[in-house]
Amino acid sequence: MNILLYNPDNGVTRNFMPHLWMFLLQALTPPQHKVHLIDGNAQPLTEAQLSEFVVSHDIGLVGIGAMTRMAARAYQMADTARAAGALVVMGGPHVTEVPDEPLGRSGGPRHVDAVALGEADDTWPRIVEDASNGALKEIYAPVDNAGKEVKPTLQDYPRIAWDRIDLTQFDLMSKLPRWARYVVHRVGLPWKTLLMVPIESGRGCPYGCDFCTVTGFFGDSIRFRTNQSVVDELLLIKRRAKRDGGEVGVFFIDDNFAIQIKRTKALLREIIAQDAVVPWVAQISINLLRDEELLDLIAASGGRWIFIGLESIDADNLRDVNKGFNKPADYAPILQRMANRGIYAITSFIFGMDGDLPGVADRTTDAIESWPPALPVFGLLTPYPATPLYDRLRNEGRLTRPTHWLDFRPFRMAFTPKLISVSQAEAEVREAWKRTYSPSSIAAALEKFNGRPFREKSVFFIARLLFRGIYFPQMRRRYWIQILLANRSSIIRILREAMSIHSRRLNTPVVSGARK
Ligand code: B12
Ligand code: SF4
User: Does the N-terminal or the C-terminal CB of the chain have fewer CB atoms within 10 Å?
Assistant: First the structure.
């Protein structure tokens, strides 16, 4: 049977890296079936194109995965695939949280033939076999014979063939126009390709923050792959980068990469010992980053960026959403200790919390500007189904758009906050993005790199220009021209610095035979 695994786009933003689930399920598919992968974030498809693909490739089964914000688009594409004659199964966090919705049991139309609940590592091969035998069931749940939920241990994690997979659609370099590639090369980043590959080393986070689906979905039972299997995957990726003459970065997509610090340190030591070091990004909560030995190991093993859910600079807000383990007083010193080692933070903030007042954007941005340079991101508190936040707001009668995902609108509130109006909360988030990514703010952040290696500064600059694109439409050439023009002073300064480093290098006499 021919299978298509498809991740819809949301029509608004782009992701910079492929979704892991499709590569994982491909690796778990019984070998007699042929699997095609399309990630709509990198390769947007219209309904007509999807239909044409299904028919021309004789696709028997389409597997669709989607975050809540992509649900409406996913259903639209599921309808299209079914109309083109394929069976459709959906999986992932959203349909696990509201399985009746895609199955048409909650009053709306039916969009899928089957739903895979929870982690599908063990159920996927069964789904494929049932579909190819014409015996697809409606619901697949990861349970044992007694009906008890079984979570994959990850001890026998499959080998994902990163050395053979075509990742052209995710090459960040290929997305840049030729002249921009030239600029990037001049600032000291000489790669032909630049890929970001998702890897997981473990699953689960027990912290249970009220707005987060992770504890409910992956459970509070934390599971890890063996260190060796992670190291082997890194070595595979490293070999690929060498072969392509490019750079490959890794995103450890674990929800909280250092949740068991001892295990994380052991993994990082193995990465260093087996020379599996590649530049990497991970998500770690700030409380775990107090550990200086962990920071040393992160730096030595290639860790460059850490995504940290700081959420708020207000301790009461944090307690309200069950994230009181974040201590705002810790933020600056921890970020500084990271920056001293060349590790920078993607700091994530949420507005619209119950303690937020008008002006929260300015207060938060003032704080951010007093810290070491980072890539801040801002969102609105969003009640995802099956989270404690969703249930609380529903019980309090505060949900204004209880099925907000069926009418996805980026940066729009779905409930009424307490001390701030809906429109004010939405304005605050716009203001925070505008101020933080303004050319003057970017220039000020670059000043903070004095004394640090030039490469850190140039990578930071490029990342700061690109990163916003994950959250805002930045797909058209017009946006890029605007951004580059607005930041021309910083670009010129960086280019001048690159040239002076280049000419200093050319003028440095090479002492024959000297090796250190
Ligand atoms: C990496 C990641 C990102 C990356 C990008 C995604 C990418 N390209 O990989 C970045 C950082 C950009 C990102 C951004 C956002 N993310 Co995110 N992200 C994740 C993260 C950490 C890992 C995803 C992953 O690969 N997991 C590992 C794989 C193996 O698990 P999985 O995807 O769930 O797949 C398994 C099952 O679900 C199932 N499955 C999944 N799909 C399918 C399909 C089929 C057919 C089948 C059978 C099975 C199946 O099988 C898989 C194996 O068991 C998850 C949390 C998490 N741990 O999952 C959050 C998560 C997916 N993100 C989330 C959110 C909310 C966001 C943002 C909206 C945050 C924000 N407010 O800005 C943005 C949206 C950006 C955008 N442009 O749309 C939520 C989604 C909640 C929800 N119900 O939708 C999650 C779950 C985290 C959370 N805190 O709750 N994210
Ligand atoms: S620490 Fe992060 S992953 Fe863990 S429950 Fe909180 S928000 Fe979710």
Answer: C
The answer for residues whose C-beta is within 8 angstroms of residue 14's C-beta and 6 or more apart is 41, 42, 469, 470, 474, 475
pLDDT for res 335: 98
Instruction: Look at residues 319, 321, 259, 305 and name the one whose alpha carbon lies nearest to residue 285.
Output: 259
Q: How far is CA 243 from the centre of its chain?
A: 26
CB-ligand 2 contact for 45 (6 Å cutoff): no
**Closest ligand 2 atom, CA of 211?**
7
Q: How confident is the model at residue 495 (pLDDT cuts 50, 70, 90)?
A: confident
CATH of the domain at 29: 3.40.50.280
Q: Are residues 331 and 225 in the same domain?
A: yes
Which ligand is closest to the CA of 309, given by its number? 2
Q: What is the full DSSP assignment across 112-136?
A: -SEEE-S--TTTHHHHHHHHHTT--
For the CA of 214, the nearest atom of ligand 1: 90
Look at ligand 2, atom 3, and give the residue with the nearest C-alpha: 255
- Determine which residue's CA is closest to atom 55 belonging to ligand 1: 255
Does some domain include residue 10? yes
Q: What is the largest CA-CA distance in the chain?
A: 79
In angstroms, the CA 445 to CA 490 distance is 11
What the block records as the tokens of 270 is 């193995």
Closest Cα to atom 6, ligand 2: which residue? 209
Q: Other CB atoms closer than 10 Å to residue 487's CB: what's the count?
A: 21
What is the tens place of the pLDDT at every residue in 155-187? 999 999 998 888 777 777 776 666 666 766 766
Over the stretch 76-97, which tens digit does the pLDDT of each residue have?
A: 999 999 999 999 999 999 999 9
Within this chain, do residues 421 and 293 fall inside the same structural domain, yes or no? yes
Q: What type of residue is 135?
A: A
Using DSSP's 3-state secondary structure scheme, residue 246 falls into: coil
Ligand located closest to 209 CA: 2
| Confidence bin at 350 (pLDDT 50/70/90) | very high
Same domain, 264 and 377: yes
Best substitution site from 21, 127, 404 to test ligand 1's pocket, by max atoms within 8 Å of Cβ?
A: 21
Q: Is the per-residue pLDDT at 29 higher than 80?
A: yes
Residue 479 domain flag:
no
Atom of ligand 1 nearest to the CA of 96: 37
Among residues 107, 123, 140, the one where a domain terminates is: 140
